[in-house]
Amino acid sequence: MKWKEQAIILGTRQHGETSVILEIMTRQRGRYMGIVKGGRSRRMAFLLQPGNFVEAEWWARLDEHLGLFRLEALDLHASRLIVLPEALYSFQLMASHLRLLPERDPHPVLYDMLYFFMQNFDDPFINAELLVRFELLLLEELGFGLDLSCCAVTGRQEKLCYVSPKSGRAVCEEVGRPWKDKLLFLPQFLARKTICPVDFNDIKKGLILTDFFFNTLCLERERYKTAVFAY
């Protein structure tokens, strides 16, 4: 078995005296792992940093084997990531989120979002907004997508200000006002279909929103935990 594809490095862990197990994200094959022989050497250290964009060649005798990687550098983002703490944190969080998905399960939309982040992480407002959008997209890929397109009660698409914690659907300001203490705030950059300025208060609301649904819909469901930790 053999394939070659562009990939983003997510991380490594030690394997024996001289090698590492490399974890990458690919567009067509999802999150993939394999051994890089000599990966602990100084010569390879710069290439295997999380965030780097590489062309990965994988081969193994059988498809179910861990296999070996051969890598070629395409764009070494890690040197820029390491001097931007906010961007580095966002990338590490995205990488850890991807581990909620089964290995070798393709999710091209998540790969595309991660790739777009790697091209635009220099602006803290952009990388923070992309983190929120990435988490919403991940919830959707996991089967827990939110419906923010219109009000769950009236069907209106204007003045969407809240999200129901029970249904995950948007609620307009007029309907939600009496119940606002029981609803989640919907940041305007997610509610509007046109581009609008984003501030850190909106980012905070977005992260609170995604955090709530990660906790209540994903991590607390026993059947979901069983499925995830089986890999």
Automatic annotation (TrEMBL):
Q: Which GO terms describe its biological process?
A: DNA recombination; double-strand break repair
Span of domain DNA replication/recombination mediator RecO N-terminal: 1-69
**Protein keywords:** DNA damage, DNA recombination, DNA repair
One GO cellular component from the entry?
bacterial nucleoid
- InterPro entries named among the record's database cross-references: ARFGAP/RecO, DNA_rep/recomb_RecO_N, NA-bd_OB-fold, RecO, RecO_C
**What does this gene product do?**
Involved in DNA repair and RecF pathway recombination.
Similarity-based family: Belongs to the RecO family.
Q: Which NCBIfam families match?
A: reco
Q: Which protein, by its recorded name, is this? A: DNA repair protein RecO
Question: Which species does this protein come from?
Answer: Bartonella clarridgeiae (strain CCUG 45776 / CIP 104772 / 73)
